[in-house]
Amino acid sequence: MRETASVKKSIEIAELSDEAFELEYSIELAIENLKSMEINRLSEVDFHKNLWKLYDEEKDIIFYFRFNRLEEELQGKQLNQLETLTLVMKCWVASLLVQYHFKTVQTSFRYVLDELITTECFRMRLLEDFIEKIMLKGDRTKSSIASALLNFFNYYDNFEGAKEYLNFLSTIPSSKPKTRTIPTVKDCLKFAWVLNDFYTQSNNTDWKYTYFYPVRIWWHLTTVIPIRIGEFLLLRRDCVDNEGNRYYLYLSRIKNKKSRAKKTEVERIEISCKLYNMVKEYIELTEEYGYSKTLLSYRAYKGISLANKLNSSKIKRNPNVLTRWIFHTILNDFYDDVIATSPYNFTVRSVGEDSEQEIRQSRNNSIVFDFERRLRPNDTRHIAFLSLMIQGFHPVEIARLGGHDTVYGQRHYQQHEFFLTDSGISKLIKMFSFTGQFLKGHNSNVTPSNNISNIGKMFREKFIFSPAKTFKNEWDKLEIGNCTAIIKDCQTQCFRCGYWRIEYDEFIEKRETIEQWMLESREEALALYKTVFNLHLKLVSKVYSKVNLKLTNDLAIHSKRLKGLLENIDGFTEKYGSWLEDE
């Protein structure tokens, strides 16, 4: 196993926080996060102190975080939550410091602290003053303030005017598109295929079977239900149950624990029998390692690491909880010690070397990897959100499944338009039953190469084409290609239809027209996506709980059209994609 390398930190804060505040767990996690940081001798960071100093050696700058400002400037305001808020701010900042540059965190900290003070912790009577002040800012500053506050509200929102402040903040557009934060569909599909194949071929007596099991549960749960990695790691040991032939997951939404006025958390979620059995098997496999407060066992991780002489962290303060850092280590180990080794032997970019800029740069030098970008713990949450949207779920229901008391989080769907146009998206959304078949004939006993997309003629005919209902001499010749349908009940363009066939020579001859068809189809998919997204915005722009039947019906219709179009595009790409690569 390899020691998990430090992940390169972002310079722009995301609107969605990776964590949410829960007093006991968050303080413990914050202390661990601070200890995990590489602190130089000029930095002073102690969770229990109100002044933190972080020295940037490269820029020769010290960044200060003064947490006592809150109590100093709001004394006498009859606020009874200042002590708790100071703890919240410390935990929030600690969660950001392991992800972002010091300067980015300090800037966001100042924005949030300033607004906490000027609005007296987001009181309703000061909302209009807040809006007026923010609207006077330049577009870039407005966007930066909104991103910082949205991230903070996503972490903790127990304030009198949280909903109203969020409604305003969600109207402020991002100043520029966010950097892509999730791998391509192809990388996700290959990951899922390897994961499935690994657990099909492995024996549960192999230490790797148990060691990587948290990754298996994480993938199957969080690609369907958009829960935060923090919520996943806090699942209790007895988090699943069954009633007859129905199976349930009990999930404590840590973001909603402070909200006394609302009861919107999803405490019991129906899951598949397959996922239920996975959880039960993992519990059985890890019982021998001793007590665990959470489903995922830190003691099992530590025991397996020691027994197999793996690189592992020092003893934790609380061995009853497996932290995000450790889970990320296990996830990266899966790439390095399963995906990149026999029998799969895929090439994978190293940890911390898979930014968009680095990927583009290496491709310009003709260096391409089978896995260009590794999954991060919260990537699956984004995939689940996008999947629910395309499936036609109402934004209110998506917000509830995602653990939001408000729906401002819908904004982040816009970040993933690139993901929508990747081939294979419909397979990912339908949670395709990944087998070797999907990797175009790749066999686990054969070392794959970078051109795994080449589909052999026999494989295409055997696995991809649905059998023609007529003999070849009965096919109807079209302007491009042939129609094999007995009864013509045309509901889509010919090349999107399952009855459409074309010979290789004609395909190559008319490839320019076919490529134009594909381009127009992808543009149509993007247009439908934007329509669906705009319907989401309309549905949440007025009253959160109000049901607009016409908009809801329009959402269902356009989502169905989008889903169908994506399936058509993917079907065509599977059948003929390799021909487009031929000269």
TrEMBL record:
UniProt key word Metal-binding: no
Entry GO MF terms: DNA binding
Keyword Transferase carried by entry: no
GO BP, sorted A to Z: DNA integration; DNA recombination
Protein name as catalogued: Integrase
Keywords tagged on the record: DNA recombination
Source organism (scientific name): Bacillus cereus
InterPro entries per UniProt: DNA_brk_join_enz, Integrase-like_cat_sf
